[in-house]
Design brief:
It is built from 9 helices and 2 strands. It is mainly alpha-helical. Strands 1-2 form a two-stranded antiparallel ribbon.
């Protein structure tokens, strides 16, 4: 008798599929910051049980895209300067800690490949730029050689994806590529101080742009 007897491989649940679909709509701007996700209305429109919608919303809450408010229920997050700074500070500290390490050849290759993929998206598939951007920074965090820290950064990416999608509306592909190329060049040269400085600058510019968006 095998230790795996009876183990079933299950496909993604309906709730997860709904969470993924709602996430895509939020990223696309179909739901704006502060908008309510009316579970009964969504359930009726999609012909899905309300409990399933509620489970999907809970999944979104864990990603940071949605939060519950008293007397309002589930609402799409409304960015604030404080939230942006807290999120980007966590990101910056992870990446700067990673960049003081010397990458192994395979790690440098992974960062380079992620940058090339970002450039390819900028030319051929602009809709993929945000995902490729995050993959580049995930490759940097991987320099820490910690699966737990990899997972922690991955847990930040859903919320980061939301903000990067906001930024994508005000950035050109050339600007995105130039900022990431500067980081990669410093890593390739083994210039740790410059690499850290480039990440500081990259994060600072992103935070300031997001704050400017909030004021509009």
């Amino acid at each position: 008798m095998s230790a795996l007897d009876g183990l079933e491989v299950r496909r993604t649940t309906t709730a997860q599929q709904l969470a993924d679909g709602l996430s895509e709509r939020i990223m696309a701007g179909a739901f704006g910051p502060g908008d309510r996700l009316r579970e009964s209305a969504i359930a009726a429109e999609l012909g899905v049980a309300r409990n399933t919608i509620r489970e999907a919303v809970r999944i979104l809450e864990l990603t940071g895209l949605v939060r519950y408010e008293v007397n309002r229920g589930a609402v799409v997050i409304a960015p604030t300067a404080e939230k942006i700074e807290a999120l980007y500070t966590a990101r910056e500290r992870l990446e700067t800690a990673a960049l003081v390490r010397t990458p192994r050849p395979e790690q440098l290759a992974a960062i380079t490949e992620a940058f090339d993929a970002l450039c390819d998206a900028a030319t051929n598939d602009p809709s993929a730029i945000v995902d490729r951007d995050l993959a580049f920074h995930q490759a940097i965090v991987a320099l820490l050689d910690s699966t737990r820290l990899d997972e922690f950064f991955a847990s930040l990416t859903q919320e980061l994806r939301f903000y990067l999608t906001v930024l994508a509306k005000d950035e050109t592909a050339d600007e995105v590529i130039a900022e990431h190329r500067a980081i990669l060049d410093a890593v390739r040269l083994g210039d740790r101080d410059r690499a850290v400085a480039e990440i500081h600058a990259h994060v600072e510019v992103s935070v300031e742009r997001l704050k400017a968006v909030l004021k509009n």
